[in-house]
Amino acid sequence: MKQLIVFALVFLSFSFAADCTCNSCTECSSDLVGGACTNVKVAVDLYPDQGVSCISAYGSGQRTLDCQGHSVNAGNSGTAISVDFADGLHISNCKAKGGFSGVSITNSPGISLLGVDASGTSYGLYASNSTNAAVSGGSFSGGEYAIILFNSGYSTVSSASADSATKSGVFVHYSPSVTLSGITATGSGNGVEISNSDSCTLSGISASGNDIGVLVGDSTSGHFSGLRLFSNADKGMQLTRAYDMTFDSLNASGNSRGGVYSIFSSRDTFNSPVVCGNGLFDIYDEMAESSWNDATCRNSSPDGLCAHACSAQQQGSNGSCISSCAAGKKTCSGNRVETCGDFNNDSCNEWNVTETCTKTGESCVNGSCTFVSASCSDECERGAAECSGSLISRCADSNGDGCAEWGQFMGCPTGQSCSNGRCTSGCSDECTMGDERCMGGLVQECVSANSGCNEWGEPKECANGTCAGGKCPSTQPAPPACKKEGETIPVIPNPPECCAGLSLIKPRQQNIIGISGICTSKCGNGKCDNETESEYNCPGDCQTRPECPQYMPPAPGWCANGTVVPQEADANGCPRPPNCEPRAPQGQEPGGETDPFTAFFGAIGRWFLCLLGSCG
User: Fold this and answer.
1) pLDDT tops 50 at residue 57
2) Mean pLDDT throughout 367-372?
3) Quick check: pTM over 0.70?
4) Cα gap 394→380, rounded to integer Å
5) C-alpha angle 448/452/453, rounded to 5°?
6) For residues 241 and 216, what is the distance between their CA atoms, to the nearest angstrom?
7) What average pLDDT does this structure show over 381-386?
8) What is the pLDDT of residue 90?
9) Under 8 Å CB-to-CB from 100, ≥6 apart: which residues?
10) Taking a C-beta distance cutoff of 8 angstroms, is the pair 282, 298 a contact?
11) End-to-end CA distance of the chain
12) Cβ(402)–Cβ(158) under 8 Å?
């Protein structure tokens, strides 16, 4: 019985500890980072009590931070909510204010934000190296960028507003397959900017009052639909090095300078665009290699792109206005419901806020205030579509719970098939056979589908959970690059080799740890290279020789009665002084013996001299 009571107390204490309430920046950070708290709820408005930043969620993955509508403030150069190495953290109902960034997400895949606002910051929402982020609702404004996604592909931003940024309201950079839907971008340098990011999907974007409504550069294969680009100071849309893009239901009208401006771009397809009432031009296509199907416009370059002429009202010739939407339509701008209608009695339709979702747990979804449960998460990327034969399914919040899921597969119209996520009368290749691409930690291979065209196949999981450069890293290390002249070979498994023409010599000194030698072609050339060679590893070039003694030159005539005999060098190679060997007397052998011939005639000479009286 006692054991049962103890177990119950432990269980109850754990259960209560899972939900925590915090009252300060430090307390909230501690609850997120350590302990048993899985759901951290902010009870009061927070101000930094240490330094300039407030909540730090370092390493706090798979947890929930619910600000319950309270504000989280940062100092001038700090961050209101900082998320780093925290996979799967869910943040909701927060108002991040002040500081360098409102919400900063780095190295944290799978982060979700629901109903988060950020204002008065240099960066409202900053996500870096954080794939599969999901942002729903919320209002981001001010600073250089309201929302920036850098190297954070496969992320979604929906039903949010991004306003009043000096550079871009939404900036997607080096982030492929990002989905933006239901976004309002006003009063910024660029409303939405897509840069170096392929296969992005934009739908239901409203961009007005910016310098440029939508700017796309150095990107391919995007799908944009339902873009409303009105009253921008320069252009509605600019494309620079944008290829193989598809635009459905584009309306770029009433912009001060131009509607759609395309330079260095080709193979883009525009289906039924309406581009009317712009200042200098409606459509400018520099390369003239894109398709303008059923376009409605007034003037274009090159001529002939306009299949239909703009109406008088679309041209703005009545001096009143240009309708920016269809009457009765509803959309979301952050947590606000906007309805399309003629609210200022000027005979044209415009968007106007008709309701604000203010109740706890309530968010604007699909043009209406909906109670959103934090217990669910998106099952797919909003706005995405997939094919199964002639059937098509789309990813959306079809049940109103605030989370996206795949809808039922529906048949395409008679005579059409599903290709590349769309019903078409034919099909087109999505990719090149054998190509591969990454989807987070998954890899997709281009295969031949039943439609007869190439499509991306079923994503497969990489063995180590990561995918890079379209490939799962091999379990075997890649062959290392060879080492160049003067570079060392480390002591590791499967070490690199010296490049061609180089040999591996020992390190310059004995007992060097960590390297097995040096790659060089200089050992043996007779010159000691001090950077790579020494007497230890290349004695032939760097042999240390002792200093040879210097000898005084011999005095003049020191060997006048002898013979100078040179001497061989000593053991160290130093020269030795010559010897002076005495000459043998005339008639005497060098060994001191007299030869018989000389002795005979010498005796006769001495006898003759003796006869003359000179005997000695």
Assistant:
1) yes
2) 76
3) no
4) 9
5) 65
6) 8
7) 74
8) 93
9) 74, 76, 77, 78, 79, 121, 122, 123
10) yes
11) 149
12) no
